[in-house]
Amino acid sequence: MEYPCITLWVFLANLLFLGASSNHQQNFLECLTDQFGRSNSSTDVIYTPQNSTYTSLLSPLPKNLRLESPAQRPNLIVTPYHESEVLAAIYCSKKLEIQIRVRSGGHDYEGLSYTSETPFVMVDMRNFRSISIDSKEKTAWVQAGATLGQLYHTLALKSKTLAFPAGACPDVGVGGHFTGGGYGMISRKHALAADHVIDAKLINADGKILDRRSMGEDLFWAIRGGGGTSFGIVVEFKVSLVTVPERVTIFNVTRTSETATNLMHRWQHIADKADENLLMRPFVTTVKSPSTKNVTIVASFTSLYLGPVSDLLPLMKKQFPELGLVKQDCREMRWIESVLFFAGLDGQPLDALLDRNPFAKATPLFFKGKSDYVRSPIPVNGLRKIWKFLYQVENVQLEFSPYGGALNNFSKSETPFPHRKGNIYMIHYAVLWPSHNETDKHKDWMGRLYSFMARYVAKSPRAAYVNYRDLDIGRNNINGSTSYKEASVWGIKYYKNNFRRLVRVKTKVDPSNFFRNEQSIPPIS
């Protein structure tokens, strides 16, 4: 007897919500149109749900079906070309008290740059993608909407030896990646992307455009690893570039079963201690034999050495002879060719790096990712127990990213990114599934694996990488303020002791908490 009443209540609530959403949209559109007129900007960069291109603009890259529902879509999308248009979006958002979300690439694991449970507008920075390189000074100005692929492509056209230490996925946006740290295949030699940010242009909640000098060192510190959009909208970064050899060497050696287990155990003892020119990044998954249907563990040691194979082979014989690396396993190439290789674009032309959606033809799937840091090697028996979890579901992968080297050259408080000396490697857990009906099963599986891993990973606090965003570890209150204690549940995991300083910076530069999301740094109220 209660069902008709519940249905009617939901129906009425939806009507109210849609009405409120429509009002937010119309009011914001009128405000933006007025502000754009004052700066002679075109309103062609404003998109409502009624625009034919709205859905394609909103769609994240890559597409994660887990985030499609029930999160709310933006009332409006703005794709600015000029700072004045960003300023207009901030002005109208403050005036109308509508939340603003900022997206540079759309890779946020929890969709916080393009979804919200409260009414909001999205500023998509895709048109802020200018890159200016000074080869003599080895610096570059990179706008926040550029992708890593666009940055690498521009560097390759300028020089055979200029490079930048950032991630392997070419379609990741610079804005989110740099502000969260930015680990990549040359990080053991050249540290993180955030470690190379030497200036920036940021628009704050008051609509002021600030550079490093005018924003002050506290705020400049905060945006180099403190996560995106807690303190303002970064529109551009100035970075220092690095030099790599004209020839580098890549290899991807695969081993299975007990051999893989023993090699993974041995790898842990040298991962952070190996020559800093060498980064060996194992990926562990399972394969099913088409004939016997037996499932086997597979470890692929995906690796980059900054130098020729003639130098690599004796180094591997000394530091990791158990892998049995031989010349036939290796390929020498230019650094930019290794970028294509690690991006899954091996053999494709350089221009493939310019594609903001290089895997558009891939079937959209549901995805969940998490992260951990390991400070002591996991014993062989522990690895075997972990592998048992991998047998329980399909399309699962563990990625082991080694630390050490140049990552240890920075103190834990030099930037907000605290995961420095003492960490052997980071684990990235990933699972994919094809349908909504399997969501609960896979989320439960991930939760059980994560709980089991607690005995092997960093403790007090258990740590996580903010660029692998994970709302499971905690979130801010949707309605009302979030206390320091409440936010510390997740904040300490990402930032350790740096979280306290980040909160102090937030309180100073954005006391009203204008820039906020489910895991933004809260001010002290």
**Class of secondary structure makeup:** alpha+beta
Q: Which percent bin holds the helix content?
A: 25-40%
Radius of gyration: 23 Å
List low-confidence stretches. Answer: 1-18
Strand order of the largest sheet: 15-12-14-13-17-18-16
Largest sheet: 7 strands, antiparallel
Number of helices: 15
Number of strands: 18
Estimate the global geometry from the Cα principal axes: globular
Q: What share of residues are in beta strands?
A: 15-25%
Distance between the termini: 46 Å
The average pLDDT is 93
List keywords for this structure.
525 residues, alpha+beta, seven-stranded antiparallel sheet, five-stranded antiparallel sheet, 32% helix, globular, disordered N terminus
Structure in words:
By secondary structure, the protein is an alpha+beta fold. Helices cover 32% and strands 20% of the residues. The chain is built from 15 helices and 18 strands. α14 crosses α15. The chain is globular. The two termini are 46 Å apart.
How would you summarize what this structure contains?
With about 525 residues, this protein is of the alpha+beta class.
Write the layout of secondary structure elements.
Elements: H1 3-38, E1 46-47, H2 54-58, E2 76-78, H3 83-96, E3 99-103, E4 120-124, E5 131-134, E6 139-143, H4 148-158, E7 162-163, H5 174-180, H6 187-190, E8 197-203, E9 209-210, H7 212-215, H8 217-222, E10 233-240, E11 242-243, E12 248-256, H9 257-270, E13 278-288, E14 295-305, H10 309-319, E15 330-333, H11 335-342, E16 366-374, H12 380-390, E17 396-402, E18 425-433, H13 439-453, H14 484-495, H15 498-509
Parallel strand pairs: 2-4, 3-4
Antiparallel strand pairs: 1-2, 5-6, 6-10, 7-11, 8-9, 8-10, 12-14, 12-15, 13-14, 13-17, 16-18, 17-18
Helix pairs in contact: 1-3, 14-15
